[in-house]
Design brief:
By secondary structure, this protein is α/β, with parallel strands linked by helices. Helix content is 24%, strand content 23%. It has one domain: 3-Layer(aba) Sandwich (Rossmann fold). The longest helix has 20 residues. The two termini are 16 Å apart. The structure holds the ligand Nc1nc2c(c(=O)[nH]1)N(C=O)[C@@H](CNc1ccc(C(=O)N[C@@H](CCC(=O)O)C(=O)O)cc1)CN2 and adenosine-5'-triphosphate (ATP). The ligand Nc1nc2c(c(=O)[nH]1)N(C=O)[C@@H](CNc1ccc(C(=O)N[C@@H](CCC(=O)O)C(=O)O)cc1)CN2 binds next to helix 5. InterPro entries: FTHF_cligase, FTHF_cligase-like_sf, NagB/RpiA_transferase-like. Pfam families: 5-FTHF_cyc-lig.
């Protein structure tokens, strides 16, 4: 267990609320001119050659607040045999459902007016592409404060592979993990991809797949 002087949940919650607001503001202030960072994140995701993204069922997200737009990437994945689904908040304080999505399908506004498929068709993703507000060196994610992904991952069996997508500006030494926080398997930024685990298990436990190298691409620190 890492040394963490901020252990108290009320204290951590207040810290996260302020950090979340700061990071969202900094993301919204990124120069929109060419979207080079976002393009680099998607290029790094593509270069990871995750088999589930080529042929599996991909849970992704409809971008808002300058989250990285994965829709063109996911459309490419559909061409190689993947299927896709979007998260839908069906009830506050409950796990999200993933509803099957296809290009040009009819959508309707969901929570925060984020579009969701008009028709409910729940499916089980093999791999989840998760938007990051912040992330830390152990693969923990800071989101929008609803706890939706933690609840969803706690409930999903088998556990999908989880990849967080974000900008380097969201990197934090620690998000002060709490018992409810479930870390992601890998974090993808404009700098590269860092694998932390595979479906929640230590990389050293996995016989094949993502065991080696534990992280790759560019100069990422693998410790
Ligand atoms: N594009 C996109 N879609 C997504 C997500 C995402 O991160 N990105 N989600 C990923 O999870 C889910 C929506 N996440 C949400 C997270 C929080 C709140 C919310 O109501 N937050 C409260 C603050 C809660 C608190 O601080 O206690 C609020 O803003 O009032 C709503 C939706 C599903 N869809
Ligand atoms: N498995 C769970 N069961 C019940 N409550 C949970 C669970 N996971 C998280 N929560 C609750 O959700 C709330 C928000 O948690 P947190 O700050 O980690 O959100 P977040 O991961 O940033 O949000 P999101 O995933 O929606 O973007 C907390 O009050 C937490 O107790």
């Amino acid at each position: 267990m890492q040394d963490d002087s901020m252990r108290d949940w009320p204290e951590v919650r207040a810290w996260r609320k302020a950090k979340r607001a700061e990071l969202i503001e900094r993301r919204l202030a990124l120069p929109a001119t060419d979207g080079a960072e976002a393009a680099a994140v998607v290029a790094n995701l593509r270069a990871a050659e995750v088999p589930e993204l080529a042929t599996g069922l991909i849970g992704f997200y409809w971008p808002f607040k300058r989250e990285i737009d994965l829709r063109p990437f996911v459309r490419d994945c559909l061409k190689t045999g993947a299927r896709a689904a979007l998260p839908v908040v069906v009830e506050k304080g409950r796990p999200v459902e993933f509803w099957a999505w296809q290009p040009r399908m009819k959508m309707k506004p969901g929570i925060w007016n984020i579009p969701v498929p008009a028709e409910r068709a729940p499916v089980q993703p093999d791999v989840l592409l998760v938007a990051l507000v912040g992330f830390d060196e152990a693969g923990y994610r800071l989101g929008y404060g609803g706890g939706y992904y933690d609840r969803t991952l706690a409930a999903l069996s088998p556990r999908p592979l989880t990849l967080g997508l974000g900008f380097e500006l969201g990197r934090l030494p620690t998000i002060h993990p709490q018992p409810h926080d479930i870390p992601l398997d890998a974090i993808v930024t404009e700098r590269g991809i860092a694998w932390h685990r595979s479906r929640g298990r230590p990389l050293s436990d996995t016989a094949e797949g993502y065991a080696s190298p534990p992280c790759f691409l560019h100069e990422l620190d693998c410790t």
